[in-house]
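Support request, please re-run this one:
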Amino acid sequence: MNVGGKEMGERPVILAPMEEVTNKQFRAACKSFGADWLYSEFVSADALVRSVRKTLEKLTISEEERPVTIQIYGRDVDSMVEAARIVETVSPDFIDLNFGCPVKRVAAKGAGAGMLRDIPLMVEIARQVVRAVRVPVTAKTRLGWESGQLLVDEVACRLQDVGIAALAVHGRFRSQMYKGEADWEPIARLKQDPRVHVPIIGNGDIDSPEKAAEAFERYGVDAIMIGRAAIGRPWIFRQVKHYLEHGELLPDPPLAEQVDVIAGQVERSCEWLGETRGILHARRHVARAFKGIPDFRELRVELLQATTLERLHELFERVKERDAN
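Re-run finished. Output below.
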């Protein structure tokens, strides 16, 4: 798959952008397990232009992460262009335009998936950002705003005409949020549309190696994104890559290895944010980790209630003991 002149290999498996999740610490974990391409959290163009410290921190990337994309969102042409120019200074491999975030605080203001209610503005933002930077520009969107009002075909054609180098599509309408099942049939039809010549990246509900293989084989996408299924289990990338290459299912890592991975994420989060905030930030990973362990509820509650690294390490050792037993 070629994206804006960059060769990305066959059947890339990508870490999807997720707010408060795909920070540099989590990206590093996913990369270590074989993720081919990483996306940042989404970055507010307005906040970036105003030099908000927390937003500027999201631009921190390392050479080990490449290829890496920084994703921006907004609804004003000038601020999106200026934000893209700021992002370009940190030399990401790609800049992505978020036209798909469904959360109310973003979409209700006309940004993210709210752009699906003003496609001419969406296209103009894409046109001007592509003109303003030398980095390849991609976009991510949804099937449409309301169920039954499919817009992604028009969006794909118009965005590629103004220079978007690849399009990621989440198989839900904005009105669905994350409910129900993602619909991949419109993504498959988009990929088969002779008018569409940019790579199509499929996104939505890929939580197993088998679903990843189906996305490529049945729906014909050029690449896939894994989002929520990677929270608490970044080794899903290793499992998916192995299945795609060998047709064999890899088991989850030994429990001791899982503990070390999650503990490492917590520690790096604390180094970045301080102990209290770091633990709070990493709790979503702790909450989703260690699935399938019998009679684990009480210990999970203790893990989620822990407020110090010392206490967490004590509890992580108790989790490892489950493996020994």
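The longest helix spans residues 255-273. The chain has two domains: 2-246, 255-324.
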